[in-house]
Specification:
Length: 460
């Protein structure tokens, strides 16, 4: 790999100092910003490893709120960034709280360029060491669970649990929304177990008609039912010595659940139409995207079976909750698909990053995979855009991170809903919104909305 350019961002509202600093650091790739909004835009665009930020972002203001908010937003968006805050002599206390918030260091003005250069240089060196360290750690984390990207705290915890239970024979239940990786993780459980060189047999309890499921699972003897022309071995027996994966266990018909319970207790099966008890040694892993407690409450799942299958329960977090891991997984998938499609794509454009961060991903990793696969095929440029992902202009899902915009969007939406419900009646709508009529009029003016179009008369 070639040398990676060192990117520095300077956030300073004083144009003279900004220019002076820019010149001083011209050996780096420098981007500049004069306020919070620009800083966040530049941060997204350039992902600088080090940021030099004045903590007093309004030169005539006594208050550091803006500076601290910029720092907080920077670290929230890119937690590994090394932020050095510039302070005045009098700001010592606030500098400490900046460091407590996660700033890497602070530097007292007046600026002495040589010293500052040393500090910045050191911040780059530390940042690079940490990046390398994380890369190596990820390699260690990833290698036993091949092909599984686990970059968020939640997924790392899941992988650690998988590694711990894999060597045992404990019956394990994987819980997670559709597309979160239950099957992928069940295969990892098998691969890491002493049974790895035996069969991994999966059966989807939701996909097989109820009347066939028993014979699929336990097999049948010749002539045991119409169409049973020959003796057939079931999935449980096929998995003998290895792992049986009961996918969508929540959909197992209640009648079959007692037979499954018996098998789990006694570890013997009887084929349909057979009289012989056949001992089977399998490790059982189950998965469902339903809530077992709800199923039990509704009488759809036997409580005793639930306790049998959940000797160990692993909860897989939905993709949207994976915080810092979301983009890492998206990037990994992008690399994978652009390599397999032979397309030279460099990464995600800003709007795609924002869309990935704010979309709700009901289909989880599977949906992400599909969208990225599609985007790699569709992309015209070197960067994947929100449009390529099919997430452009979807106001409900792609939210702005700019607080003012978010507030405006939320307000307009609430007002529209209230007006719709009240057929444009201002008094009622204001009451519903918990504001006075004049305030509602002000807001209608501000957002260019008219109550008339919501009145009953306007309805088609
Ligand atoms: N952490 C991950 N790293 C890489 N790929 C993943 C990860 N999690 C899931 N995938 C991929 O996402 C897709 C969906 O995963 P999987 O089929 O295991 O989900 P599932 O929970 O069984 O879904 P469903 O409930 O719909 O059956 C697969 O192609 C899988 O390879
Ligand atoms: Mg599945």
């Amino acid at each position: 790999m070639g040398e990676i350019a060192r990117k520095l961002m300077i956030v300073e509202d004083d144009p003279d100092l900004r220019a002076q600093l820019q010149q001083c650091f011209d050996s780096y790739v420098v981007c500049v910003a004069k306020n919070r909004e620009q800083a966040i835009t530049e941060l997204r665009r350039h992902e600088p490893a080090v940021v030099l930020q004045n903590l007093r972002l309004h030169s005539n203001s006594e208050c550091m709120e803006e500076g601290l908010a910029t720092l907080a937003e920077t670290l929230k968006l890119a937690p590994h960034t090394k932020v050095i805050v510039l302070i005045d002599n009098v700001d010592q206390g606030i500098a400490m709280s900046a460091v407590a918030q996660g700033a890497y260091n602070f530097y007292k003005k007046p600026v002495e360029l040589d010293t500052l250069r040393l500090i910045v240089n050191r911040a780059f060196a530390i940042s690079e060491l940490e990046t390398e360290n994380r890369r190596l750690q990820n390699q260690v984390n990833e290698s036993p669970l091949d092909g599984i990207v686990a970059a968020s705290e939640g997924m790392l915890a899941v992988c650690r649990m998988i590694e711990k239970v894999a060597p045992t024979d404990v019956t394990t239940l994987l819980l997670g929304e559709s597309g979160t990786g239950k099957e992928l993780l069940s295969r990892a459980l098998h691969r890491l177990s002493p049974r790895a060189d035996q069969n991994f047999v999966a059966i989807n309890c939701a996909a097989i008609p109820e009347n066939l499921l028993e014979s699929e699972l336990f097999g049948h003897e010749k002539g045991s039912f119409t169409g049973a022309h020959k003796q057939t071995i079931g999935k449980v027996e096929l998995a003998s010595g290895g792992t049986l994966f009961l996918d969508e266990i929540g959909d197992m018909p209640i009648a079959l659940q007692s037979k499954m319970l018996r098998f789990l207790q006694e570890r013997v099966i009887e084929r349909v139409g057979g009289r012989q008890e056949i001992p089977v040694d399998v490790r059982v892993v189950c998965a469902t995207n339903q809530n077992p407690e709800d199923l039990i409450a509704e009488g759809l799942f036997r409580e005793d079976l639930y306790y049998r299958v959940s000797e160990m329960t692993i909860n897989i977090p939905p993709y949207r909750d994976r915080e810092e891991g979301r983009l890492i997984l998206a990037r990994t998938l992008l690399q994978k698909f652009s390599a397999s499609q032979n397309r030279a794509i460099n990464g995600f454009a800003d709007d795609a990053v924002q869309a990935i961060e704010s979309y709700s991903w009901p289909g989880n990793v599977r949906e992400l995979e599909n969208k990225i696969k599609g985007a790699v095929i569709m992309a015209d440029g070197k960067m994947i855009t929100a449009q390529d992902l099919g997430l452009a202009g979807n106001g409900n899902d792609v939210e702005s991170l700019n607080l003012r915009e978010v507030r405006q969007q939320a307000e307009t939406k609430a007002i529209r809903v209230a007006l719709t419900k009240c057929y444009g009646n201002i008094s009622k709508a204001a009451e519903l919104l918990g504001i006075t009529r004049p305030t509602l009029y002000d807001l209608l003016n501000k957002y260019g909305l008219s109550s008339d179009s919501y009145s009953k008369k306007a309805a088609p």
